[in-house]
Write a structure and sequence with these properties.
Layout: E1 3-4, E2 9-11, E3 14-16, E4 21-22, E5 27-28, E6 33-35, E7 38-41, E8 45-48, H1 56-66, E9 74-76, H2 82-85, H3 88-94, E10 100-102, H4 104-114, E11 120-122, E12 128-130, E13 135-140, E14 150-154, E15 160-164, H5 183-198, H6 202-213, E16 221-224, H7 236-245, E17 252-257, H8 263-278, E18 283-288, H9 294-303, E19 306-310, H10 320-331, E20 338-345, H11 351-361, E21 365-366, E22 371-374, H12 379-394
Parallel strand pairs: 8-9, 9-10, 10-11, 15-16, 17-18, 17-19, 19-20, 20-21, 20-22
Antiparallel strand pairs: 1-2, 2-7, 3-6, 4-5, 7-8, 12-13, 13-14, 14-15
The protein binds MU-OXO-diiron (FEO).
MU-OXO-diiron (FEO) binds near residues 83, 145 and 165.
């Protein structure tokens, strides 16, 4: 069912309650997601974005219940990753000549995915599309988070920002608005989304938000392409983004490890004890990368001022799961975070050196050479780990 959100704007997207994995298996979606599409009706009608391909027929059929498709004058594609452009082929079968407004890169991406010669109109920052009494203005959001990304601003109804992925959350809800859901759940999903998808583009986030703020736009709502619409104090999420983009950290240390026979786990817990002794006000989280969700672990690391990564030595290397986590940590370009490594071993003991090198390569400020213990740690070894935790805390 379509949902009217303002005089001129209706939500016509799809809430995906069943989604558990996004971007293949790269991102966990514990609370599902939504693919938000909007109809803007003035003297002319614009459809903003579509939905993911598995819901293409459902989307088009529900859209037909809301409007005669031939009454859609323009399609605006703010971003053309498959979760938003996936229903275009089904829609364009019905209205093949309708112009598609998108960036030049957007056209290239649509052509690259669907191999169709549709009626593309390329737009740039500052271009406007008059709809009657009101207009849409486009702002390129290059690399936030794809080369084609853009934002559309509607100057009716107090000002509506259609921001696509920016300010989104993977969060299924029928309630639609930010003040109609549990705030802690919403903010966790917004943080997880920023940490895992947008953090590496933080310098661009700051620059782009400053550019948009300088436009002095009136903003009644921010309508992203996933999750809730920011209606109650809508710019709160913009302020959050500015804070998150500025090497965000809380007074938290995250210890993440893998373990084969519990030796590295015991080391992790002893190190945590040492940190708590030295810094009782610091939140310390101890996470097992094979039990805890990788994207939740990344969110905890993103919140932290420091991280300790532990792995046993296996096959003269380190664990498969820790290797994957370190690859994610490197890709997200986390800034101003201290780090060190630890792990147990039986003979060669290569893991700690490898973890230290990978943490440095990932841009962390490594504060020492790490700690390694042979076989199962005894009381003395655990005391050493506790002392190591105290020293680590003192170096922060
Ligand atoms: Fe929600 Fe980048 O697609």
């Amino acid at each position: 069912m379509a949902k009217q959100i303002t005089e001129h704007v209706s939500w016509v997207g799809k809430v995906d309650w069943e989604l558990t994995r996004f971007h293949g298996d790269e991102y966990s979606t514990h609370r599902g997601s939504s693919y938000n599409s909007y109809l803007v009706r003035d003297e002319k009608v614009a459809l903003i974005d579509t939905v993911w391909q598995p819901y293409d027929r459902e989307f088009v059929s529900r859209l037909k219940q809301e409007i005669d498709l031939k009454a859609i004058d323009y399609i605006v594609m703010n971003h053309n990753e498959i979760d938003h452009s996936g229903a275009l082929p089904e829609l364009m079968r019905e209205i093949p000549d309708t112009p598609i407004y998108c960036t030049k890169k957007g056209e290239a991406i649509i052509r690259g995915h669907y191999h169709q010669d549709w009626n593309f109109v390329n737009v740039k920052t500052g271009d406007t599309l008059p709809l009657g009494k009101h207009s849409l203005t486009f702002v390129e959001m290059t690399m936030l988070h794809w080369p084609d990304s853009m934002l559309s601003y509607f100057d009716g109804d107090g000002g509506i920002v259609f921001s696509n992925d920016a300010f989104g959350q993977h969060f299924a809800t029928e309630s639609l608005y930010n003040d109609k859901v549990v705030e802690a759940d919403l903010m966790y999903e917004a943080e997880k989304y920023y940490a895992n998808i947008l953090n590496l583009y933080s310098p661009l986030v700051t620059k782009k938000i400053q550019q948009i703020l300088a436009m002095n736009l009136s903003i009644a709502m921010i309508c992203p392409s996933h999750g809730v619409i920011w209606k109650d104090n809508p710019t709160q999420i913009v302020e959050k983004y500015l804070a998150w983009a500025d090497a965000y950290q809380e007074n938290q240390v995250t210890i993440v490890y893998d373990t084969m026979w519990q030796s590295t786990r015991k080391m992790a817990e002893a190190i945590a004890d040492g940190i708590r002794e030295a810094q009782p006000d610091t939140t310390v989280k101890v996470l097992n990368i094979t039990h805890d969700d990788k994207n939740d672990v990344i969110t905890e690391i993103w919140r932290s001022k420091a991280v300790l990564v532990g792995s046993p030595t296996i096959n003269y290397g380190h664990s498969f799961a820790i290797a994957g986590l370190l690859e994610m940590m490197k890709g997200l370009k986390l800034k101003k975070k201290k780090a060190a490594s630890f792990g147990s071993y039986g003979w060669s003991g290569d893991a700690v050196k490898q973890l230290t090198a990978k943490l440095q390569e990932a841009g962390f400020e490594v504060v020492n050479d790490g700690i390694a213990k042979l076989w199962m740690p005894d009381e003395q070894n655990l005391d050493d780990c506790k002392a190591y935790g105290r020293e680590f805390a003192q170096s922060l």
